[in-house]
Design brief:
The protein is an alpha+beta fold and 136 residues long. It contains four helices and seven strands, in the order H-H-E-E-H-E-E-E-E-E-H. The protein has a seven-stranded antiparallel β-sheet.
Length: 136
Amino acid sequence: MATWAWVLGIFAIAIVKLLVSCPPTFVADWFVGKFEVHPKLDEENVTVNIDGKYLEGDEKRKVINEFNKAIFLEKYYVHPEKSGTPLIIDAKIGKKDARFMVYRHKDHIDVFKQDNKKTVAYSLYSESFQKNPVTI
C-alpha cells in the first residue's frame, strides 16, 4: 500500500512540474496577454476618430490593421510631450475599456494608452502609419 502511495505521489508531482514548466499554448497566450503593452485590436470592438470625426469602413479597417502591424519600440517611463491632433482609438479589450491616443512624428509614433486609472506611454514604428496623411 505504501509503495503505491509513493508511486502515485511521484507521478502527480511529475505531472504538476510538467504543466508548470511548459504550460499549454492557450494558457501561455492568456498569461502573456495580461501583461501586453501593445495589444492587437479587433475591428468589431473599436471606434476610431480624429478631431471629432469618426472613421468608418475601409478607413477604419486600414487604421486598425496598420496599428496592429506596428512594431513596438519602447515604453516611456516619463511621458513625452503631446503635440498635434491625436488619432483616438476607443477599444474594448476583454472586459476592459481602453483609449489609445496616437501622435505621429517623423521617425516614430507615440501612443498613450489609458485603461481604468492607469496611463501607459510607448512608441511604435510603422512606416505606412507614419506617412499616411488621411488617417492621422
